[in-house]
Fold these 4 entries.
Entry 1:
Amino acid sequence: MRSSKKGFYIAPKLLKKVMKIKELPIEERSKTVIRTWDRDSTISPDMVGLTFEVHNGKQFIKVKVVEDMVGHRLGEFAPTRKFIRHGGRAAELAAKKAKG
């Protein structure tokens, strides 16, 4: 966790890509996707409306940035673990009961 007095962190390379896309016309901006492995970068107001592909360790997850995401990290929207379900005898019986 980064201290609030230090400010937020955005990777310089990612910020450069965002500024480059902001110069494009609006029609092209919505079609352009930025691929990144930098999950710890904070989402800034400049990124609103852009689409990122954030790497989760296995694949890239598409993240369309909206206003409510400002201040959060890119990695928060690309989960790294897949929850299947809790196992055990009780879960097995509950699944059977639910089916019929």
Note: The chain has one domain: 4-99.
Entry 2:
Amino acid sequence: MHSDRWANLLAASAVFLLSVSFLPAQTLATGDARKFIPEPQYPAVCTVLKAQFSSSQRSAPPSADDTSRLQAALANCAGTGKMVLLTPSAAGDAFYSGTLKVKGEALVVGAGATLFGNNNYSGELLSISGNNPAVMGPGTIDGRGDLIHGTPRLINSKGAIGLTVYYVTLMHAAKMHLYVEGGSDFTAWRVTVATPANTKNTDGIDIDSVTNATVFNCSLEDGDDGVAIKTNSGPASNITIRNNMFYGTHGISIGSQTMYGVSNVLWENNQLYGTDKFGNVSTDSNGINIKSDIECGGMVRQVTYRQTHLVGVKHLLIFNTYYGSCSGHTGIPTYQDIVVDGVFATDSQAGAYSLFQGYNDANPLNIYLANVFLDVNKLKTSQYSIIGIDNSSITPSGTGVTTFPFKLYGKLPQ
């Protein structure tokens, strides 16, 4: 009789172990492969230019502006790694310019100075390329997007290696403030984006098809995504977004273009507010947000969100494979190895909810929820998901949704 009992226990244990062995195992993201990145340093001076206009001319810039002399100085210093420094003078505090090309040198807007876009620039105000280019402050770059026609980007980097954007304020982009596509080893450190939440499509920082990127200690306030990771021309991988504040944005986002694949992304110690510093409510108040569609979808894997605080946000945890119309190459949006470890949501907006939406039964969402406390646990359209649960206030359910217990030794944000 005892032998039958032990046989039954062994059989039950074998079934349990076998079932556990088929559960997906999480792989935590490590982010930027450069690991330790020191605070950027200012390079040696190549040229100093003094302001000859005033910021009081912002609404009506001078027709004979600074474009030519700025571009001549940048061209003279191109490839040197040294800086073109813009400073105030007795004559004024402002520079007005059309599109400028920065290629392997640093453009530094000094304290008290502002670089304004003129009425005629198109495409972008700053076009960045080359090896180790930089855009630095502590001054301000103002695209005057609230006054000009069209939707040029403020800073547009294409294929740059080692781009650094440091301690500078970016304002009033007509579209994206800082767009980095291709290349590698991008660093944004102590960047301030200060554009109200009720403006048009004005992402803060877009990281597109980049390998090795870090966004650290930035304050981002804009009318669209705070940070967006996407893949318009190649895969995006090894990315760290750490210690940042977001105000009135559309969230910390991956997508919508994911067709070339996004992998190894670490979001850590970020705080998101549903309103900007002026009290404007975000026009699409998202917290954690992965979004794509069959029109531009692909694999998103090994993404970790650690220690995220959401205040006054409406769409708390959004994993959306039916985002809607987006441009790109057709591909199934598949999200695997997504770990949410430590989320605390307070003062959520009326009607707040989360969404866990895998594409179909053959391509489910694979996500782990650990140490998650949401003050609103309402669900919307959750389907086709395999979800690990450890100390979570929200337990998704719906068509094709299965949950299982697991253990991750993290904690709630403080």
Note: Residues 251 and 286 are 5 Å apart (CA to CA).
Entry 3:
Amino acid sequence: MEDRTLGFKLLLVDDEPSILATLRLILKSEGFDVETASSGKAAKAALLQTSFDMVVTDLSMESTTAGYEVVRAAQAQLKKPVTLVLSGYPELLDKWQTEGADAGLQKPTDVPELLETIHRLVRNR
């Protein structure tokens, strides 16, 4: 199977610096070209500047809807990236499908499950 992650541009969004740094290292080791944003506002600005293949975002940052605002901004792009939302709040995560995300995972996220979900989304893109 060909490696589709090479050169695959991913925007990682989380307001928790340790989570952002850890996930960035994990995703880079998987071959992704990772750019990070530490807020929904910064993520929306990044989406206006760069075309991404995938967006992985926390839901609750500067507001409880910040992650879904990032998903909507991603979906408004000409080349729509695949979107994955992460949250420690099950009541927020329940709406990922109706909010337009391609997948949702509960935090703390099991790394093998996260990678399997990302690779599945990449394959199905």
Note: The domain at 9-124 is CATH 3.40.50.2300 (Rossmann fold).
Entry 4:
Amino acid sequence: MDIEKYNDHISQGVALMAQANYPAAKNEFEKAIAINIQSYEAYIHLGNACANLGLLDEAIAAFKNALVVDPASGEALYSIGNIYLLKDERLKAVEYYNKADESGFNRTELYQILAAVFFEANDSAQALRYITRAIAVSPFNGELRLFKANVYLAEKKYEQAIETLDEMQKILPDAFEAYDLRAQIYCGLKKFDEALKVCQIGCERFPDDANLALSKLKVLVEMNDDEVAEKLLEDMKSRNQYASVIKEAAIQHSIILLRKQDVDTALAVLLEANDVLENDADILYLVLDIYAQTENYEKLIEYSPVMLSVDAGPFYESTAKYFYAHALDKVGRVDEAKVEYKKLTSELRKVTIETPSFYEGYIYRLLSHTRIGEYDKALELADYLENMYPERTDANAFRYFIYKEKGDLDSAEEQKNLALAKNPDIKL
């Protein structure tokens, strides 16, 4: 083996990787492997080069070759897990991450990724297990403690979240993110005065931080203290804080304005933010919802396709399509509306098969079937909704709507009474 040539290819490949010249780096590592087929180092480098090029199957092959040379390599196992995660094959990713852990690859990043994977899968117990292990490895990493607090917050375990933040602030007293999260927790507990106090302390300590000002704004809006909230909005604008948090600030401002029934100004605020953000799905959804609530069907027809151009996922996409069909129906373009409703039922059937937990998909299917007179199909979906959430009033409320559209007023009244028995406050 020409060790000198081998070393040259490795060093040149590493230098090329640093310059992000991944094709040339890949070529150098392949030349190194041709000289030494048993080079663990070269296979690891080759796998990283392939990963950066998006050649995911080749990356896995390279890392698996590294495992042939060193079967207990935690680095190779971890790297394979990363590639499977990029391929969105989460079960395979978790399998290899666990193997890496068992091999002694006890790294913060491994536990952090596993925690995130389980949290996204709604397995909070496992997420907490792994984030706790990550904290044990890196106790001064504030991001890990924030993640742990967020897991508790998602589970509505507010006291545990507060305890986690207390621990964090003992170690990292200047972590301004803790103030924001603590305020969210107190809001969840409906302790708005405590939340406001936390925000005030944070804003005094970090007066230029726009996120803390935003947290304070959210608390004031939750408290219905609209006058103080509007003053804070003006202050944020004068301090050049508003622009950096324009999305959330505009949403909060719109809530205040809608409470005052100032719909036009609320829309103007949201549309201005949307222009700055170059079409934001959350903002557009609020705009569409306001147009639907105010029966401004021409604007619904105008803005629904804008939402569809954003590529924001099935909820926003199906909402925009339903609003579009509904608006066409309301302005008298009935034949066009029927075509859109029919298309939506077909599209959403596929989506709900692929993602059975997409609850809103069933609702839009039900509504669309009802609008085109396919009442039996709509009632089948109402039964399905009831099976999913028997304690909710949804199924009865939708049956009321379906029977009313069908002209079966006795059955509609029966479903209305059943809904009211479950929730006396429901408005039908």
Note: Residues 13 and 27 are 8 Å apart (CA to CA).
